[in-house]
Amino acid sequence: MASIALIALSCVAAAQAAVVAPRAASISEFSASPVEFTYPTPRSGFLVNNATTYPCGGLPVGDRTAYPLSGGKVSLDIDTLAANVNLLYANSSDPKTFHEFSTFANTLLDVSEGGWCGEGPDFGELGLSAGSDVTLLAIYQLYGNKTYFYHCADINLVEDNSYTAPNNFACSNSSAVLETASGEDSMVLKGSNFSAAQEGVDGQTVSIDLAAATAAVSSTASGSASASADASATSAATSAGASGSANSGAGVSAKVGGTGLAAALIGGLALLL
Ligand SMILES: *[C@@H]1O[C@H](CO)[C@@H](O)[C@H](O)[C@H]1NC(C)=O
Ligand SMILES: *[C@@H]1O[C@H](CO)[C@@H](O)[C@H](O)[C@H]1NC(C)=O
Ligand SMILES: *[C@@H]1O[C@H](CO)[C@@H](O)[C@H](O)[C@H]1NC(C)=O
Ligand SMILES: *[C@@H]1O[C@H](CO)[C@@H](O)[C@H](O)[C@H]1NC(C)=O
Ligand SMILES: *[C@@H]1O[C@H](CO)[C@@H](O)[C@H](O)[C@H]1NC(C)=O
After folding, report:
1. How much is the pTM?
2. Which of 192, 198, 210 best tests ligand 2's pocket when mutated (most atoms within 8 Å of CB)?
3. d(CA 5, ligand 3 centre) in Å
4. Which domain holds residue 146?
5. Total domains in the fold of the chain
6. Which of 121, 140, 176, 217 has its C-alpha lying 20 to 30 A from 9's C-alpha?
7. Per-residue pLDDT tens digits for 120-162
């Protein structure tokens, strides 16, 4: 009896050890972006050595998905434990700089393998019109490494009443670990092309001068292109955290692998048990 109980206990201990020690993957293990748009269709190809190249991982503009002015969904396929996933858009058919982009969703602090689906931007409310080309961007880190990777999808806006969602489109979240930051703790970027008319109606007023951040970094003129992309993304993330709210001084990047993940994993474990 006692030994059966002991075996059961050690199984629980082993399960806990397995769950609380997430593996940090390397980008080189993947043949496609490990955080990838499943809708709208992403740019095709994946250049593992250029995945850190802003704004779109070194990939040229691809086929455009017709996308509604409002009510569109964005879905992602996640292949490994990812951190600080942020979704952005640029009112541009071929943005050349990261700082043209603005965020449109709360930061996914930690998300494990599975599918994620949420609301796309309300482009009508943002002042864009049917016929415009827009570029969507997902930036993300792999758990345990603060390097940001860049992945894009190209869309063309259409009136809501001439939009048809793809057949069998299922919008759901299926990751065992999904921790989403609150609005005030999320990375909030408003790109250089973001106008006053595009201020959200939800009262978010955190504004990052990414153009200045990027200029400051480029003026040091010694780093490689990817180093300055990392630096600007990191400095943006840091300022977003710093100015987001008085009581969240830890900031966005400080949450990677911190208590956020532990809490999410413990939550997941509680469900498993
Ligand atoms: C990929 O990166 C290499 C090295 O930085 C660079 O020479 C090459 O032009 C890049 N390719 C693309 C398509 O960006
Ligand atoms: C966005 O701003 C940059 C300069 O900050 C400008 O060169 C570019 O043309 C703008 N793009 C659009 C779509 O307005
Ligand atoms: C979107 O970009 C187009 C083309 O550059 C520009 O005419 C328009 O003013 C932009 N819209 C907004 C809301 O910034
Ligand atoms: C983090 O990822 C980058 C890009 O893949 C890589 O060059 C670097 O070696 C990684 N750092 C660590 C500590 O694994
Ligand atoms: C998925 O999670 C996000 C938060 O990360 C939430 O906004 C969204 O509504 C969820 N999607 C579904 C289909 O419940």
Report:
1. 0.74
2. 192
3. 67
4. 25-272
5. 1
6. 176
7. 999 999 999 999 999 999 999 999 999 999 999 999 999 999 9
